[in-house]
Each structure stands twice: as structure tokens, then as C-alpha cells.
Specification:
twelve-stranded mixed beta sheet, 12 strands, alpha+beta, 4 helices, about 260 residues, outer membrane lipoprotein receptor (LolB), chain A
Length: about 260
């Protein structure tokens, strides 16, 4: 799953210390958590068309150890194996990503500029390219991968089925996982459509243990998606630039990330 570097994320949360279970019970908890996660990832991977909306909270830890939270909202459409559209609006950037299976386009609407690059292949391959070549982590994209279970369980050292919780009025299974650098939790809808409703990643390698939080809504696994949804239409006055020139499209303003006092 995605790792974090200097960026921190942490919405205000009140934690309760959990007592470790005895070994046989812990084993059952781990097997149960893995099984529920596998059911969710298999279900999502089996859906040809997906549409959803989601809200993200990203918190930055400044050098003064102050936690600053930034929020944005997004919508996406996915058609397997090779079509993706994502639109994200935040206080510092307004960005669209359009992928038709051959070419990916990133439009910075706040910059009135767009960049395109060849990316023949699947949405899985696009996500890998965004991460490895453009340093766009998009942690929530793990949920959309065809091999989501293997990716999310990579390096997991501990897994627990905490119990149940309610997200947006929907009853969910609450799972918690740990690896060396991160802790992560996921809430999965109870019932015949086990879709993810909330996803939280805690970076233990950063002072203050900041978090990234993703809340999903309007999730449709039988979505009717327009045939031209994955066709990029450049605004009339938008400038085409090289992808390396497409800056200031992050959810967090650079000055705050570096901890500079304003």
C-alpha cells in the first residue's frame, strides 16, 4: 500500500487503547479481518463500472508540531480495464484526470493548463505510473486496483476485526491493520454489497503520527457511465504544457508543507 514521506495527514480523533488478545483469539481476529477485506476487494474488482464521490482530509505536521488539516472533495468514474475519470476540488487546486486506455490527461483548472502523456494499458498500470514516475501517491487508489487485496496486505504484520461501526448511516465492519511504517483502518459496508465506506492511513514514521482520511459516498457498482466520459475536451483557452510543468495541483499548498510561517 502507499507509503508517506514528509507529508502528514491527521484529522482530530480520540483514540482508545486496545488490549491485545490472547494468541488463539488474535489469530481468529486476523483471519476474520483478512477474510472480510478479501471479500470487499474481490467484490469491487468484479465490478466493470464504478462511480463514487469521496471527501479527503489531509493533515500536515509543521516543524512546530502543529497539525493543519486540508480538505477536498472528488468524484470518479471507472470502467475496467482501462478507463478512468477523476475530478478533485480543494481550496488550493481544481484538477481533472482523464484516461482512455491510451492517453492520460491532467487538467489544472485553477492553472487553465493541461498536460498529456502516453499511458497505454490498464488503470492498474496508470496508477503505478502516476506513483513511480510522477510522484502522485493517491493512497485511495489502492481500493480500485484489480489486485487490491495483495497490494493492501503487503507487509501487514497485524490484522484485527475491531467490530462494527456506522459511516454515513450505514453499518460497516471495522478492520485495523499494521505494518512497520503505517497503521490503517477500513470500514466495509455490511451486506450483499461490501463496498468501502471509510479508509484511514496513519503514518507512524512521521512525528505526531498524522493521518490521511478518505470518506466515500454515492458509491455505485452498477453505474451507468456516459460513453464520452473518458474523452478529454480541452477548454478553449487552456494551454497545453509538459507534464513536468504542471505544478500546484496538490491538495496542500507548498508553503504550508515546508512549515514556513505565514
Amino acid at each position: 500500500m502507499a507509503k508517506f514521506c514528509s507529508l502528514g495527514w491527521f484529522p482530530a480523533v480520540c483514540f482508545t487503547t486496545l488490549t491485545l488478545f490472547a494468541s488463539p483469539i488474535a489469530r481468529a481476529e486476523e483471519d476474520d479481518a483478512a477474510s472480510i477485506l478479501k471479500t470487499m476487494t474481490d467484490y469491487v474488482a468484479s465490478q466493470k463500472n464504478i462511480s463514487a464521490a469521496f471527501d479527503t482530509d489531509i493533515e500536515v505536521i509543521t516543524p512546530e508540531l502543529q497539525k493543519i488539516q486540508f480538505a477536498s472533495s472528488s468524484r470518479l468514474s471507472l470502467t475496467r480495464p482501462d478507463k478512468l475519470w477523476v475530478s478533485r476540488s480543494g481550496g488550493y487546486a481544481d484538477v481533472d484526470l482523464v484516461f482512455d486506455g491510451k492517453t492520460a490527461t491532467i487538467l489544472g483548472k485553477n492553472l487553465n493548463a493541461f498536460a498529456q502523456f502516453d499511458a497505454p494499458g490498464s488503470t492498474d498500470q496508470l496508477i503505478d505510473k502516476l506513483r513511480s514516475e510522477l510522484s502522485i501517491e493517491a493512497p485511495g487508489a489502492d481500493l480500485l486496483l484489480s489486485g487490491a487485496y495483495d497490494e493492501m496486505m503487503k507487509d501487514v504484520l497485524d490484522a484485527k476485526h475491531i467490530g462494527r461501526g456506522v459511516i454515513g448511516g450505514v453499518e460497516c465492519e471495522h478492520l485495523a491493520f499494521r505494518n512497520a511504517d503505517t497503521d490503517w483502518q477500513i470500514w466495509i459496508e455490511v451486506g450483499p454489497k461490501p463496498i468501502p465506506r471509510k479508509y484511514v492511513i496513519t503514518s507512524k514514521a512521521v512525528t505526531g503520527a498524522p493521518q490521511y482520511t478518505l470518506l466515500m459516498r454515492d458509491w455505485q457498482t452498477d453505474a451507468q457511465i456516459a460513453s464520452d466520459a473518458y474523452t478529454f475536451k480541452a477548454p478553449a483557452d487552456a494551454k497545453k504544457i509538459d507534464v513536468k510543468e504542471l505544478t500546484d495541483i496538490d491538495e496542500v499548498p507548498p508553503g504550508v508543507v515546508t512549515g514556513e510561517k505565514k
